[in-house]
Amino acid sequence: MPRKKNNTKRNALIVLVLVAGAGVIAWHDGLFGITAIRDINQGELDTGTNVRIKGELTAIVGNLMTVSDGDGHTVAFSWSGDKPALGSIVVVSGEVSSFISLSDVSSVWAVWIFE
Fold first, then answer.
1. Is the pTM above the cut of 0.70?
2. Owning domain of residue 56
3. In whole angstroms, how far apart are CA 95 and each of 10, 38, 84, 99?
4. 54-73 pLDDT, tens per residue?
5. Which of these, 76, 49, 48, 50, lies nearest to 63 by C-alpha position?
6. pLDDT (tens digit, 9 = 90+) per residue, 30-52?
C-alpha cells in the first residue's frame, strides 16, 4: 500500500503549531529575556536600559506598584493601565530610572502558566 503524505504533512504542521504556541507562552510568562531585579537594585544596569522583570506584585497604592523577586529585591514603578491582582506573578517591561525604580513602563501582565 502506498503511504499517504497528507497525514505526515498534517502531523508536522500540528507539531509546529504546538511548539510555536509553547514558545509564545514561555516568552509571555517570562521564562527567557528577563532581567533580575537584584541586578537593578545593585546598580549593575545603566539608567535608561530597557528591561523586562518578573516577580510578585507586592503593593499597589494608586498608580504606584512594587514587584519583588522573593529574595528581598524590589522595584517600584507607576502604571495607570489595568492592574493585576495583588500577590500575582507579573512580567513588567520598562526602563531603568534608578536602582529602585522603573520609568516608561509599557506593559504589566500576569503570567499565564509558568510562575
1. yes
2. 1-115
3. 43, 15, 20, 11
4. 999 999 999 999 999 989 99
5. 76
6. 777 889 999 999 999 999 999 99
Question: What whole-number distance in Å separates Cα of residue 94 and Cα of residue 22?
Answer: 24
Residue 91: strand pairing partners = 54, 109
**Which grid coordinates belong to 74?**
524590589
Helix (H) or strand (E) segment spanning residue 94 = strand 89-98
Domain count within the chain = 1
Reading phi first (left if > 0) and then psi (alpha if -120 to 50, else beta), residue 30 is in left
Eight-class DSSP state of 109? E
- 3-state SS of 29-88 is CCCCCCCCHHHHHCCCCCCCCEEEEEEEEEEEECCEEEEECCCCCEEEEECCCCCCCCCC
CATH number at 82 reads 2.40.50.140
